[in-house]
């Protein structure tokens, strides 16, 4: 979709469909140059009638399509309500834009216009509003159709051009900044979404590595992919124990965005890259098993974060690490009870081969320390227990540094990729003690599943500030949301990039 910004007036716009936003009580606007007054008079009092009939009053759940070709140069207007002005928050713009655009797309519009909403409360910055508009648009219209045959594709409707209308020239530069950021962020999110949705027979560890190289080449950053031989040399016994059951070769992907004028901090972002999780010898039941292609969401999001950081030219060194492998059962697979030696030297009893995410992350986290990072961030579809605890609205956040967690809470509200903290009290550590090794990979009594994942990982970061994000419940959605189509959400890309943008 081509997005362009332009200064102009809604009532003069020549277009197939124009989307206009209204807060409640918009008809009480007394100013003569407001959009309401101008549109209403061009439409012969139609807007006033709609308000009087309570058909459209700008309520937060109201949307109304009207045919306007007899009155305006625009063929159709989509009126979208924003609710009460005092209740406005940034995510509303993403949602209402997403909704509005899907609506005009579905009636066959290929070129749409969106007018900047009037009367947005002062404290919201123009750049943020425009970033939100672009995110709402690009994220809502995402479709994965690479595996649909050409013939089927022809039936699809698509918005090809989107024009954003700005009232005054004065805000143009600010608005353009927001548009640019919105485009870079949403293209990073959609890139990650595509990798996640893509089935495991395409989206293999080798494929992820190729994608990483492609991103690195396009953005001129460093990328190194370690082969199985090199992974063995590094003695990543925990990672290798997961890869053992599969014929797909594992890859350890290292991305390094190191801008010349960087702050003296390195942030390492680690993502779980299980391209398919069958459970291994502790085989999962077949219901919904196909969804376990999304077990590499953490890894795909790391690629998205690196792409976003580099394209936004953030002044920080950001290193991305992705241990990528399948988790399959076979004659060569790890067996429950096997003990493996991790990269850190700690021995791990693998009591359950389905708790594989923490095994591959253990080695990646230990490896991360060599960059002497100011912070390590890991994200993973780690536990079903996190879905039970928080559902699809919050990322499970754990860590050893309250300041870092506060930064995530703030970025969570800005991006609406919200986090919720679970405790990592030392008393939990009791539960992962092993009789035969340093630790075991599952708990003793079945409780606190998401926390025990975090407790396990904590053993491998030492005293480095660290955050663990369990995205099992948020990385995938089974229903369409306003700007999150059914499937992979790409959650984490905007959140982590926002933390990096806020970094002091
Ligand atoms: N990838 C799964 C977690 C998961 C489950 C993600 C459902 C998304 C949806 C993870 O590897 C796993 O299997 N975890 C086990 C851990 C248990 C054996 C301690 C789980 O959650 O059951
Ligand atoms: Mn598993
Ligand atoms: Zn898994």
From TrEMBL:
Gene3D superfamilies: Leucine Aminopeptidase, subunit E, domain 1, Zn peptidases. PANTHER family: CYTOSOL AMINOPEPTIDASE, LEUCINE AMINOPEPTIDASE-RELATED. It is found in: Cytoplasm. GO terms for biological process: proteolysis. Keywords: Aminopeptidase, Cytoplasm, Hydrolase, Manganese, Metal-binding, Protease. Mn(2+) 2 binds at residues 272, 277, 295, 356. The gene is pepA. It is an enzyme of class 3 (hydrolase). Belongs to the peptidase M17 family. Its EC number is 3.4.11.1, 3.4.11.10. GO terms for molecular function: manganese ion binding; metalloaminopeptidase activity. Its cofactor is Mn(2+). It catalyses: Release of an N-terminal amino acid, Xaa-|-Yaa-, in which Xaa is preferably Leu, but may be other amino acids including Pro although not Arg or Lys, and Yaa may be Pro. Amino acid amides and methyl esters are also readily hydrolyzed, but rates on arylamides are exceedingly low; Release of an N-terminal amino acid, preferentially leucine, but not glutamic or aspartic acids. NCBIfam families: PRK00913.1-2, PRK00913.1-4, PRK00913.3-5. InterPro entries: Leucine_aapep/pepB, Macro_dom-like, Peptidase_M17_C, Peptidase_M17_leu_NH2_pept, Peptidase_M17_N. Residues 352-359 form the Cytosol aminopeptidase domain. Its main location: cytoplasm. Mn(2+) 1 binds at residues 277, 354, 356. It comes from the Bacteria. GO terms for cellular component: cytoplasm. Binds 2 manganese ions per subunit. Pfam families: Peptidase_M17, Peptidase_M17_N. Signal peptide: none annotated. This is Probable cytosol aminopeptidase. The active site is at 284, 358. Presumably involved in the processing and regular turnover of intracellular proteins. Catalyzes the removal of unsubstituted N-terminal amino acids from various peptides.
